[in-house]
Amino acid sequence: MKIFLVILSFLILGAHFLREGNLLLAILSVAAPCFLFIRKRWALVAVQTFLSCGALLWIFATIDLVQARMSQGMPWLRMAVILGAVAAFTAYSAWALNGSKFRQKYPG
Question: What is this structure's pTM?
Answer without folding.
Answer: 0.92
